[in-house]
Write a structure and sequence with these properties.
Length: 759
């Protein structure tokens, strides 16, 4: 299609949006030198200037109107209706008010126009308006179907509507057309969106049903809905199951050939009592000179899951196993994950081994990585090993030989852990909840996960193996996958440094010179304090997410120069690929050609990106399910009182976390004893009249007043506490900053703020 002169000129100005031109320069550029053509050009430029699409400078030049400049980015929708657009990673997001969302959905690729530039003087972010939706992220929705009666079907032309369960779309209407399935009322369905439209700033979808998942009240359907919303596969294709079923459940003598035989070495697995996918086994010898030989053997999954096989393709798509309250969504079929690849005791298993020689200071001075065969002597649990360490009493399974090895393992773990702490590794000792459910999926109890010596011991050994493998292949300078953790974002780190000053902690130095060791020292200063977990969580939030990449930029949180994931190939695809690369380089020790190297790097980066994405989805699924089950658990506790700690403070209230990790909101409108202002730099709610303040780490007593299971939200009220009981209540309608107060009088509110941040 032939372009108009207006389109040609606008394309020119947009291409040179930072420049301006005289008319003569424009005419020469396009060859409009004839008098007639020149007049047409001048008239078109005048029209464009009148319409505001271009501007005329004081120098008489024409240029693109910067107010019309559009940027492309990814839109993230907040539950409240507004959102943010990320234009470039590492750059500040652009705020989009609710009235400027214009029907965009979470994850959409959009074009925006800047309305208000960023103001560095008052920390106000840039804001914009969405002018075009380039690509929709949501092409399918999951929800509960309500079927219309025949009369309404005839009137509206729709079969029914879907109550979408995604919190980002809970206000979105979704009408079902007659194109697809028409199941019974209450069926959980997947629908494909046909049309998107906006009515009064609210998005309306038209879709047809493509799949029925099951009835809404069926056991486990609540979790299944979350998995489908996040597009996490829950069923293996027949081709994958068929391929898994063809894998032998025994090992032949031919398969052992070429492997180092470790079957006679004393080896054990140590895992949780309910674990079925046992992918790591450990052995340790302490020499007479005080040095150690640590052997970490990992299930050789890559031997069974070959490149481009059906299982490999499916594992790539899944990226990781997902561990939820009442189920595991495995990356590999159970025949492998719980069978031939699981290192069951007394059974021969094919493995890849990292053997490390470690001196008394914890330095790994020599290592080997090789294919092997093992036969685990015993399957131990964390509880059994912790009982041994805590009481010196061994269970029946722990023979004298195993017991002696376990005590040596504890000694080596202490050495390795101390060495990590000395170099600055950050120990985020955050509390994790384990939600116990009954046979119907209803939560019965929330307990804190133990992180005893046994758990930390295995963690130390796995970290050592992962670092050893990463360092080995980084030194070879061959294409490889690494686990990286970049330095914290400067602005987020600065906010955290300001936040911890409220607790009397100061970290000296510029942001780019703040080492992990300095942050670990800050954590050690709050060890044992009631706000320890909160400070740890806030520090964690200031960090970037760890991810997979082919460039070994190091791991900030572990203070490690090189790091990878080698120890869990049953449940993580990058580990499986690391094993595959070890096998690949073992068979081809020579250098790759430049072409081979480039092709391999491209493929590995694709795997790294996909694995990072699926890991984030798995974490989101775990959070969503935990929030759902915690809300269900609190349903019958409305009216009960609990002790808690303020875990977060915002301008709309404060979140309080109970001892069992359940978190609930006290809305600021329910703090009726005073008028509270939010002091963001110190994360404090400060009463204007009373000077009462609430900040992260404060102990409070709360009453559970409301639970919304569907929204996964718990609401608390503050029970009368000593802070407010000792203060005078403001009279109704009275504010500390009342305009009737005398001019020139010092603000008591400001004085109280200074006092509040010191206490």
């Amino acid at each position: 299609m032939r372009q108009s002169l207006e389109e040609i000129l606008m394309a020119f100005f947009m291409e040179h949006e930072s420049e301006s031109f005289f008319v003569q320069e424009i005419s020469e550029h396009f060859g409009f030198t004839a008098s007639k053509d020149f007049k047409i050009l001048v008239k078109q430029l005048a029209d464009l200037e009148d319409s505001g699409k271009i501007v005329l400078t004081r120098q008489g030049k024409f240029g693109f109107n910067q107010k019309n400049r559009t940027l492309e980015g990814t839109f993230r929708l907040n539950d409240k209706g507004f959102g943010f657009v990320t234009v470039e990673e590492g750059k500040p997001d652009i705020f989009i008010p609710r009235t400027d969302v214009h029907g965009a959905m979470d994850g959409d690729t959009v074009a925006i126009r800047i309305v208000q530039e960023e103001n560095p003087y008052n920390d106000k972010a840039a804001s914009g308006t969405i002018v075009k939706i380039i690509e929709r992220a949501v092409k399918q929705v999951v929800g509960i179907y309500t079927r219309y009666p025949s009369k309404i079907m005839l009137q509206t032309g729709y079969c029914g509507e879907i109550a979408i369960k995604d919190s980002k779309l809970k206000k979105t209407k979704c009408y079902v057309t007659r194109k697809g399935l028409n199941p019974v009322d209450g069926t959980v369905v997947i629908a494909e969106v046909e049309h998107y439209e906006t009515e009064r700033h609210e998005l309306v979808l038209k879709a047809h049903i493509v799949k029925e998942i099951g009835y809404k009240d069926a056991v486990g359907m609540d979790i299944l809905m979350i998995l489908h919303q996040l597009k996490i596969p829950t069923v293996f294709p027949d081709s994958v199951i068929g391929e898994a079923n063809r894998v032998s459940e025994t090992i032949s003598p031919e398969e052992i050939e070429g492997r180092v035989d470790l079957r006679q070495e004393l080896t054990v697995t140590i895992d949780g009592a309910d674990a079925k996918d046992l992918d790591d086994a450990v052995a340790l010898v302490k020499r007479e000179d005080g040095t150690f030989v640590l052997t970490v053997s990992i299930a050789d999954v890559s031997y069974y899951v070959t490149e481009n096989s059906e299982m490999d393709k499916e594992a790539f798509e899944r990226g990781t196993s997902v561990y939820l309250t009442d189920r595991v969504v495995p990356m590999l079929p159970q025949r492998l994950s719980n069978g031939i690849c699981s290192l069951h005791p007394y059974e021969e298993r094919l493995t890849l081994t990292a053997r490390m020689e470690i001196d008394r200071s914890g330095t790994i001075y020599q290592h080997e990585i090789f294919p092997s065969v093992i036969q685990s002597n015993e399957r131990l649990t964390y509880d059994e090993v912790n009982v041994l360490f805590n009481t010196n009493e061994a269970s029946e399974k722990i023979t004298p030989e195993i017991e002696a090895m376990l005590w040596n393992m504890k000694e080596l773990h202490t050495i390795l852990e101390r060495r990590r702490m000395e170099r600055g590794a950050i120990d985020f000792d955050t509390q994790e909840a384990k939600i116990l459910v009954d046979e119907k999926g209803a939560p019965t109890e929330i307990v804190l996960r133990e992180r005893g010596v046994a758990e930390r011991l295995i963690e130390s050994f796995m970290l050592a193996a992962n670092e050893t493998v990463a360092r080995h292949y980084e030194q070879l300078k061959v294409p490889f996958i690494y686990r990286i953790h970049e330095n914290p974002d400067s602005e987020k780190l600065q906010r955290f440094l300001e936040f911890i000053t409220a607790f009397g902690i100061t970290i000296k130095g510029k942001n780019d010179s703040i080492t992990p060791k300095k942050l670990q020292k800050a954590l050690s200063e709050v060890r044992g304090e009631p706000y320890e977990a909160v400070v740890s969580t806030m520090m964690l939030r200031s960090m970037k997410q760890a991810k997979y990449d082919i460039t070994p930029t190091g791991h900030y949180g572990l203070a490690a120069e090189d790091y990878t994931h080698f120890t869990s190939p049953i449940r993580r695809y990058p580990d499986l690929i690391v094993h595959r690369m070890i096998r690949h380089y073992g068979k081809r020790p020579g250098h790759l050609s430049k072409k081979e190297e480039t092709l391999l790097e491209d493929k590995l980066q694709q795997i790294a990106d996909q694995s990072s994405r699926m890991e984030r989805l798995a974490v989101q699924a775990e959070r969503d399910v935990n929030a759902l089950k915690k809300a269900e658990y609190m349903q019958d506790k409305v009216g009960e009182e609990f002790d808690g700690i303020v875990s977060s403070v915002t301008k709309f209230g404060m979140f309080v976390e109970l001892a069992n990790t359940v978190e609930g909101l006290i809305h600021i409108s329910h703090l009726k004893q005073d008028y509270f202002n939010f002091i963001e730099s110190h994360m404090i709610l400060l009463g204007e009249r009373t000077g009462v303040s609430y900040r992260i780490g404060d102990r409070v007593r709360v009453k559970c007043v409301k639970v919304d299971v569907e929204a996964r939200e718990v609401d608390f009220l503050l029970v009368e506490d000593a802070k407010l009981a000792k203060t005078e209540r403001p009279r109704r309608g009275e504010r500390f900053d009342d305009k009737s107060s005398k001019k020139g009088k010092k603000s008591k509110g400001r004085q109280r703020f200074k006092k509040a941040i010191k206490t």
